[in-house]
Amino acid sequence: MYREPGKSRFQLDLRRHLRSQNICNNLVHLICEIAEASKYVIHAVRTGDLGVAGTSNLYGEEQLALDVLSDRILRKRLTHSGVVCNIASEEMDEIYQAQSDGPDLYSVAYDPLDGSSLVDVNLSIGTIVSIYKGCNLFQEGRNQVAALYILYGPRVSLVYSVGNGVHEFTMNSLNEYTLSRENVTMAPCGDIYAPGGLRNKYTPGTEKFVTYLEEKGSKLRYSGGFVPDINQVLMKGKGIFFYPALKGSPKGKLRLLYELNPMAFLIEQAGGAASNGTIPILDVKPESLDHREPIYIGCAEDVQKAVEFQAACGQEC
Ligand code: F6P
Ligand code: MN
Known about the structure:
Largest sheet: 8 strands, mixed
CATH topology of the largest domain: Fructose-1,6-Bisphosphatase, Chain A, domain 1
Low-confidence stretches: none
CATH superfamily of the largest domain: Fructose-1,6-Bisphosphatase, subunit A, domain 1
Distance between the termini: 46 Å
Number of domains: 2
Shape: globular
Strand content: 15-25%
Strand order of the largest sheet: 2-1-3-4-5-6-7-8
Bound molecules: 6-O-phosphono-beta-D-fructofuranose, manganese (II) ion
Number of strands: 13
Order of helices and strands: HHHEEEEEEEEEHEHEHEEH
CATH architecture of the largest domain: 2-Layer Sandwich
Mean pLDDT: 93
């Protein structure tokens, strides 16, 4: 288990930590259910065939692609949690209604296995989750009541916020999530950058921003997995990730509901910022389930600089 030198041997688990956050019992239950589901996801990732959907296993049963399987694991757990009304997943075309509205129910949007193509080359991947009170999933990300991700790397970690700081838990040898870092914070600016997308498709504003980063001595640190790339910036407390507007793809690639809103909530909670190049990600009103936005996310001053480079290019960008 990761433990900072000098810290006590007592391991604070996720449920106890959540209970100390002054939130509704149903939300504690919901986050714990997601944490439980992630144990089955990581089991599937570790033991599953590296096959594709439609192939058969030893027993002649149909194999599911890992992202489809992860989606089912999460959806089933959420449906049976008793505290969820609407569910949206990157793997589904429509909203799934687990139950109709009622008191103290939540809606959840998630990316069950982000970066699933990286499993074949044994790189880190993750699950990303966004939680709203009530049944409306088409709200600005600022209304999220909680956000979290689980990183399946050399270690499994869970990072969450319920609007009261950002906290990291690491899975121990008994498969329990125990507190490893509390109140993670980000420096105002940093010296690492993780740039998504093809550089020859960058707009002039983004190209100038990259040149600025290179000239100030920032190091390139990009894995191609959104969860590990964000985790690096967040846990190091410095740096910026971006997946910008590209020539031919003005909205970039990443999805607002499943990927950007939860990460923006966490990074803002840690004192960082997230922008689409014009306005904060958390102020963007979702227009559809697969709404995409460009994103610059990380240290507040670095994000501000990215926004300034976009503004300086005007319409050209
Ligand atoms: O979900 C999409 C994703 O796999 C993210 O994990 C990652 O940040 C991004 O795509 C990488 O895209 P690209 O290969 O275009 O840089
Ligand atoms: Mn994804």
